[in-house]
Amino acid sequence: MLLLTFLLIQLKIIWIFTANDGSNFPKDMNLYVTFPPILERRESIPLGHLRPLGWQRRAESPILEDSLNMEPARFYHLYVQGNRSVVIRGMVPSLDVLWTDSYLSKTYGHLNVTVATRKQRLVDTLIMMSLEIFLEQYRHDDLYMNTIIPDEMKHETPLPSLINCGTFRDRLLEPVLWISAGDTASLLLAHSQNTLHCVLDGRKDFIIYDFSNQSPRDFDLIRQTNGDLYSRIDVDLVNAYKYKCLHNIPWYWATLREGDCLFIPAYIFHQVRAHGRTIALSIDMAPPDTRDDFIGNDCEKNPPIYVSLNKGQFQWRYEHGTRHLSKRTITIEDARAYLLLLLGRNDQLYKDIFREFFHQATYELAKQDLTLPTANDLWKQLNNDENNEEYITRSRLKSIPSNILQLLADILQKSARIHEYDKFEL
């Protein structure tokens, strides 16, 4: 009897330790977090050592806010050309009542989405799973969702009218849907694209750094193949001895709740922390050549604040669990437009940026058609400058011969239509 009791106690102890290994423990869904933080100074260690990012220096001020009724031309001149972040409150509807977990699972649970571990890493391993399985796990497991929003969900998702006309309309790249639970932190990063980030449910806190008087090289950066920059700084436990620069760099802040949006220009360093159950939409846009003026002939005078996302003409769409170009018919001028979008506000298109685009656009086709020209093959034809093999100038892109662009257009169109063909026809 004593032996049986001892075994039962041991089994209970083992079960307790197993149950608390974090895999099935509910996350903290608290939305009431103090931000910016109240700093704690200690004489013996640097300010903010082994504390989250933001504890190393007092915030300067909230990020500038502007009117919900702002005209697209004002937005372009002040914030896109001006390279400034701005908060716009009430720009999208709150979806907390409609998009419950049960509703999303029942309505869209069959769709495949991409998922990553909850603490973002320099190289995330994305996992594909059904939305239903993700919703069953994300409140307990170390997961968050970031996926190009499937077409089936676009009619219920808002697109701010501010960016759906004029210069902005043709520069819409992709809408990314984020769902997370608990305290979820991004890396410190700077995207190569302009981004409008909108919260549909929950809360997100943003840190925006100002490098107007200092270089970001002290951030210990890694450049991704798409041009994005990521810092190796651990945003949860900052080594303030190693990254002393954080004591000298001004930063600004914003807290977004349901309906709020934040515009972040390309190459502005920022870090995001989500709290509780959070659903957000980020819309990536190719930066324009800011020497050009705004073109807004198609912009309405009093448009609705937002329309459904399926009204937007995005470059990328999500189909069969993979990114594809949205257009099914791709002309020579479409191919040239893709290359010019890759330029952004720069005057040179670099080889690695083109290679990444070509890889994304032809990923499935390349696996099935082994005779497909590679990105390097195409690059050699696009770039006829023997003195510089690493980039193509803006002027050269505008004058590439039609026969070369036709080859690129044909490949991109075949890849975009891959699911319309029988596999034996490829």
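(ticket continues) Second input and output from the same batch:
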Amino acid sequence: MTAFTKQFGEYDAATGTWSIPSYFLSLLDSLNYIGFAVGLVIGSLFSQRYGRRLTMFLMSCYALITATIIVTSRSRGQLLAARILNYVYIGIELSVVPIYQSEIVPTQVRGFIVGTYQLSIYLGGLIINSICRETSSLEGNKSWMIPFGLFYLIPFCIMSLIWFIPESPRWLLLQGRIEDAEKSLKRLRQGTISDDEIAAELSSLQVGLDIEPEKGAFKELFQGVNLKRTAIVIGLSFFQQATGQAFASQYGAVFVKSLDTINTYNFTIITSAIGTVICLWSNFFNDKIGRRKLFMAGSIVQVAALFTMGGLGTASPTTTPEKTAIASMMAIFSAGFGLGWAPLTYVVVTEIPALSLRDHSQRVASLTNILTTFVVAFTLPYLLDDGYANLHSKVGFIFGSLAVCDCVFTYFCVPDCQGESLEDVDRLFHEDVPVRKFRETHLPSLEAENAKVWAEKEIKSDIHILGQTNGSKNFV
């Protein structure tokens, strides 16, 4: 927006134009991840101790404060500080929302529901880009203040409605609040399944916690079978960002504007609409098709788009049709990202950790995600701009190579967990089932497993009592 550029940019007397300097773009799109990381850690620890609902309520109250700081910004310093502070809210949101979603929904639709976290990001982007397109023609600072002012809307709605939804039954069970967990589960399932089925599900949740060997200590993430789970979570979080989604989402508009071939606002609306539709399709079908297939398909599309974009950028000079094709490749890349890695990363990283380690695991996953995004966002202006590496669209070769690596990682390391309860996923790991065989492996019911555990405990107890009795006889 011209008014935004004039307010926060610099005037170039030689060209007679305003522009935002590369160093400030780099700071604006990288330092915010400091707030992101802080929010993530605070939100995760608070959510683990005080519950999901209270965390979401307080983060929404905080968001109203940061929205005010953003809207009233008139200097680069205030804008930068406001963005960092606002990302504290986003970090808290990431630490609690996907976990809460995975904990409250039935197994059959877990992939769809948790995937809506990314869908909401796409849909929000589509709405705000459409609004920005309309306000861009307004005179003065209201052209960018109106979109920023919409930051008040969602936090206010969450603040007002959060106490009408139940707390996570799994979190309540971890706190030993069995009666509250039962009430919560009934509110979540009432009218969809019978009371007997609700009771059976609650029993399964309790059994899953009873037979789980983990005690909830952070160090357990890196011990035994949990080390493999943590490695998968870190790998997924790294590759989600390492293939350059920040290039399309954060720098896409700036880069397309530099190509001077297509209206920037139209392009962002088109890519947001494509991402929304593709992500919605992925959410609908990932519980049927499987996570691995969609991850692989999305990776292949990303590889093709990124290498094609890089190849087109090798021409000198780049013609208008080639520039248009480069912009098209960015849109196709976004479609591939929306097909697999965008929504499904959140699905898988919340369903494979041990039940008592879920908050710890989400913290590690999200910090990995944030660190990777920070590195990509910070280096992009220097990779793209003429005064530095001057790669322009040839960055596709870098991100395309990383996309090849995420294909290999998916094939060997990502499990298919659809159709399995969180408790059964935990058992699959403890049974040492290879990740590529999760979908075809069938386990005995949790009730049978619980009976086996109690039988083993009784045998050990009998042996202990017998040993004490024999010891007493020998003493006499």
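Agent notes: The beta strands are 10-12, 17-19. The chain has one domain: 2-165+212-430. Closing as not reproducible unless the customer responds.
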